[in-house]
Design brief:
By secondary structure, this protein is an alpha/beta fold. The protein has 3 domains: 254 residues, 3-Layer(aba) Sandwich (Rossmann fold); 67 residues, no CATH class; 51 residues, no CATH class. It has 15 helices and 16 strands. The strands form 5 sheets. Strands 5-4-3-10-11 form a 5-stranded parallel beta sheet, sandwiched between helices. Strand 10, helix 7 and strand 11 form a beta-alpha-beta unit. Helix 4 crosses helix 6, helix 11 runs parallel beside helix 13 and helix 14 runs antiparallel to helix 15. It is globular, with a radius of gyration of 24 Å. The two termini are 44 Å apart. The structure holds adenosine monophosphate and zinc ion.
Length: 465
């Protein structure tokens, strides 16, 4: 597998710390509002990376945080705490807001067939871990206390700007545009590890610490969560390109200061989705969400298809015209696949391997998803029997996750769909609790509604009788 590594600014062969195993960390959402489809482009790219690694034979353990506290970083925050602002907007507590938007994010992921990572941990659940790391950084002289806060001293590391092409002046200026001076810092680039004093005095969530009642800075959560769940050596760390500086730069500084050795070997970043006015942002007011696309009649998977047709390194500029194009192409593709009749032919292993290798080669070449989709079209056109075609499509869809073989459930309204999915979830819970009678009753209830369910490796599927 070859992948572009932001750390070395090269496409490199991926060599994991432990043969055959990959530990992967991805920065999660700040849950003060819905995710916009730009955020979701990043999660689609990370999903494809995880599934590609599995497809080519790696065992992948993936962890993601949920930023429900502490996305503040000192002076790069120009005026408001987004979580508090979200809570005030909706007359709820910060934790209620966090819980609601985490669930909404989960639903968006499901609609886009983005696999929920193995470990998903909210920042508020790992406070002890941050305190442990900050204590250690203070002991080693990487951190200092000033004006009531604990800061990381960025001059203490040999190569603080390792991830950012060493454009030191540019980076610091970039981080400080339109930002207030923080007189407690020793150096411009220093950042807060733990706040007890800040201009955001009305924080709802505070914890006691050796430095007083307070709350963590943003960057420490990813360091803490990653090391807690994935250990001291990380193979891959992902995010959108806006995370390179200061977030990932600061994660490296504090993690390597704490660990005393190199932390993560591969940093992989996805380019942004822009709208015609520039970068998409949640704080801009109205923004594009999966639900908005659905309400306009788009299939969320048409958006996934659009993302896969573009290279994750390139900026993608969103317009309804290009989404229309993607939806048309996606529908035609599904139509072509539907016409491949399951017959008596058997899989031709030689042909299967030939196309499957092409598909793997495309993805292993720095995630060339567009080439992988071309290989799918090549399969449809190829002079091979139907069983081989169908098996190749099924395999490719393990990575592409476009529901290529799934028949649309006919005549099921949105309301029915929600009811069915709630019942299926209740049945799965009953099965997990070994309440088999209850699970059977729910299956019967679904049957009475005319719904047949099928348990598969990918989860419970359903169709109308
Ligand atoms: P946030 O919820 O703001 O913390 O962002 C969640 C993820 O979305 C991060 O990995 C960001 O780098 C990424 N992101 C933010 N804006 C965009 C965008 N316009 N296009 C693609 N990814 C984005
Ligand atoms: Zn992060």
């Amino acid at each position: 597998m070859k992948i572009y590594n932001t750390l070395t600014r090269k496409v490199e062969e991926l060599i994991p710390n432990e043969p055959g195993k990959i530990k992967m960390y991805t920065c999660g959402p700040t849950v003060y509002h819905f995710a916009h489809i730009g955020n979701l482009r990043t999660y689609i790219f990370e999903d494809i990376l995880e599934k590609t690694l599995k497809y080519i034979g790696y065992e992948v353990k993936r962890c993601m945080n949920i930023t429900d506290v502490g996305h503040l970083t000192s002076d790069s925050d120009s005026g408001e705490d987004k979580m508090l602002k979200g809570a005030k907007r909706e007359h709820k507590t910060v934790l209620e807001i966090a819980d609601y938007y985490t669930q909404e994010f989960k639903k968006d992921c499901k609609k886009l067939n983005i696999r929920w990572p193995d470990i998903v941990s909210p920042a508020t659940q790992n406070i002890d871990e941050y305190i442990k790391i900050i204590k250690n950084l203070l002991e080693k002289g990487y951190a200092y206390i000033s004006g009531g806060n604990v800061y990381f001293d960025t001059t203490k590391l040999k190569d603080y700007y390792v991830l950012t092409n060493h454009k030191e002046d540019e980076m610091v200026v970039g981080a400080r545009v339109g930002v207030e001076e923080d007189p407690s810092k020793k150096n411009q680039a220093d950042f807060v590890l733990w706040f007890t004093k800040s201009k955001f005095e009305d924080q709802e969530l505070k914890w006691s610490s050796p430095w007083g009642l307070g709350y963590p800075g943003w960057h420490i959560e990813c360091t803490g969560i990653s090391i807690k769940y994935l250990g001291e050596y990380l193979d891959i760390h992902c995010g959108g390109i806006d995370n390179i500086f200061p977030h990932h730069t600061n994660e490296i500084a504090q993690s390597e200061g704490y660990l005393g050795h190199k932390w993560c070997n591969y940093w992989v970043h996805g380019e942004h989705l822009n709208d015609i006015n520039g970068k998409m942002s949640k704080s801009k007011g109205e923004f594009l969400t999966v639900s908005l696309l659905e309400s306009k009649g788009y299939n969320p998977l048409a958006y996934r298809y659009l993302c896969l047709k573009s290279y994750y390194h390139n900026v993608l500029t969103f317009s309804y015209d290009i989404l229309d194009g993607a939806q048309n192409e996606y529908n035609k593709l599904k139509g072509k696949i539907k016409n491949i009749i399951k017959d008596n032919s058997t899989v031709d292993n030689v042909k299967y391997e030939e196309f499957n290798n092409k598909f793997k080669d495309a993805l292993s070449n720095d995630l060339n998803t567009s080439q992988a989709i071309t290989t799918l079209y090549d399969v449809l056109k190829a002079d091979i029997n139907n069983a081989t075609k169908l098996e190749l499509i099924r395999s490719f869809d393990e990575v592409l996750s476009l529901d290529l073989l799934k028949e649309e459930s006919a005549n099921i309204t949105e309301q029915e769909k929600q009811q069915i999915e709630t019942l299926i979830e209740q049945r799965n819970q009953a099965k997990n609790n070994k309440e088999y009678d209850k699970a059977d009753k729910i299956r019967e209830e679904l049957l009475n509604m005319g719904i047949i369910i099928k348990d598969t490796r990918e989860g419970t599927l359903y169709e109308k009788k």
